């Protein structure tokens, strides 16, 4: 019986490959050292980053590896005393699922700096969708765009989990939200979260945006990647800001980048990529409280069990999702 107690289920990737390369195995439960936190994982969200790792597109990853750049759960052990045992926590980034084993398991052992405490009565599937999504959306709005109440924002890739979370945060700031989707069937999902103007993305929407917002939008969040970036820049006003945060297209680089030709006059291009330190505990707690009070929503598309992780990855890769995919343990 002790054997069972000392091991855990984990999803292991031995080398890049198809969804079937994600193998459910029994591994020893990690032993935390001072400065580390052992978390009993209750749920984790799926991220494009993990898809990139599985496809062999990520840099600095060593194999075999338990994937997962985020997780939520309860502190099982914390030798350094940074967080109390039993505390609800989120963990994300900092090499999780890339340079050390991540959240696709019953337990994960992470540096204390990657851990954010919270208290909530929301179900674990809902909580599992939040950390990385909120960190990226909040960071894109604040650090990337310096978005102000009353401004307009174009979200390119609006039905992605980050696109939907950003729309929710932007509406809470009193912004006018324009969001794109390539699939007309997904417009209802955007209407439900309060998007003001929904655009069917043909690849060239800048003219349409400028008809809605004279002179172009104040801010724009690029989540599709480099194929649509020039058009997003053209949809933005002089002194407006475009933040490059996502690469749903899996196309990351701009070939033959010539700034004067590429950037419209006076339009500013920034980028955002964040860590646990970019999501203040107060921001996480306030958002969870708002969800519990019915003042904000978490765009969960579908929930899977740990033994369905292959299926979840295949679904993520298909691009049919509207919102976040979550796995509960």
What does this structure look like?
The protein is α/β, with parallel strands linked by helices. It is 27% helix and 28% strand. The protein has eleven helices and 16 strands. The chain has helices at residues 2-6, 48-54, 124-128, 131-144, 161-172, 187-192, 206-212, 229-234, 259-262, 281-292, 309-318, and strands at 7-13, 22-28, 36-45, 65-66, 70-77, 88-92, 107-111, 115-117, 152-156, 176-181, 197-200, 217-222, 236-244, 268-271, 300-305, 324-328. Strands 3, 5, 6, 7, 8, 15 and 16 form a seven-stranded mixed sheet that branches. A six-stranded parallel sheet has the order 11-10-9-12-13-14, with helices on both faces. Strand 9 (152-156), helix 5 (161-172) and strand 10 form a beta-alpha-beta unit. The radius of gyration is 20 Å and the shape is globular. The two termini are 21 Å apart. The mean pLDDT is 95.
In terms of per-residue confidence, which ranges show pLDDT below 50 for 5 or more consecutive residues? Answer: none
| Computed structural class | alpha/beta
Overall outline: globular
Strand percent estimate = 25-35%
Order of helices and strands: HEEEHEEEEEHHEHEHEHEHEHEHEHE
Alpha-carbon distance between the termini? 21 Å
State the total count of DSSP E strands: 16
Mean pLDDT: 95
Main sheet specs: 7 strands, mixed
Helix content: 25-40%
**Radius of gyration over alpha carbons?**
20 Å
> How many helical stretches?
11
């Amino acid at each position: 019986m002790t054997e069972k107690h000392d091991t855990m289920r984990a999803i292991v990737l031995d080398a890049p490959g198809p969804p079937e390369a994600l193998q459910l195995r029994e591994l020893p439960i990690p032993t935390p050292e001072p400065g580390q936190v052992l978390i009993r994982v209750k749920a984790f969200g799926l991220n494009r980053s993990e898809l990139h790792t599985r496809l062999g597109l990520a840099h600095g990853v060593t194999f075999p590896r338990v994937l997962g750049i985020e997780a939520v759960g309860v502190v099982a052990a914390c030798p350094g005393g940074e967080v109390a045992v039993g505390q609800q926590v989120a963990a994300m980034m900092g090499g999780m699922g890339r340079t050390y084993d991540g959240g696709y398991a019953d337990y994960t052992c992470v540096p204390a700096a990657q851990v954010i405490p919270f208290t909530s009565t929301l179900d674990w599937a809902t909580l599992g969708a939040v950390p990385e999504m909120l960190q990226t959306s909040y960071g894109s709005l604040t650090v990337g765009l310096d978005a102000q109440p009353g401004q307009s924002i174009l979200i390119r890739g609006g039905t992605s989990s980050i696109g939907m979370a950003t729309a929710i945060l932007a509406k809470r700031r009193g912004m006018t939200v324009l969001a794109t989707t390539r699939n007309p069937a997904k417009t209802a999902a955007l209407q439900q979260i309060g998007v003001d103007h929904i655009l069917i993305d043909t690849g060239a929407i800048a003219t349409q945006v400028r008809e809605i917002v004279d002179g172009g939008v104040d801010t724009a969040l690029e989540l599709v990647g480099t194929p649509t970036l020039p058009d997003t820049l053209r949809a933005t006003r002089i002194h407006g800001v475009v933040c490059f945060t996502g690469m749903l297209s899996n196309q990351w680089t701009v070939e033959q980048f010539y700034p004067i030709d590429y950037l419209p006059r006076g339009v500013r291009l920034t980028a955002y990529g964040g860590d646990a330190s970019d999501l203040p505990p107060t921001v996480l707690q306030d958002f969870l409280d708002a969800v519990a009070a019915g003042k904000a929503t978490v765009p969960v598309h579908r929930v899977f069990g740990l033994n369905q992780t292959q299926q979840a990855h295949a679904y993520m890769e298909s691009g049919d999702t509207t919102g976040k995919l979550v796995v509960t343990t």
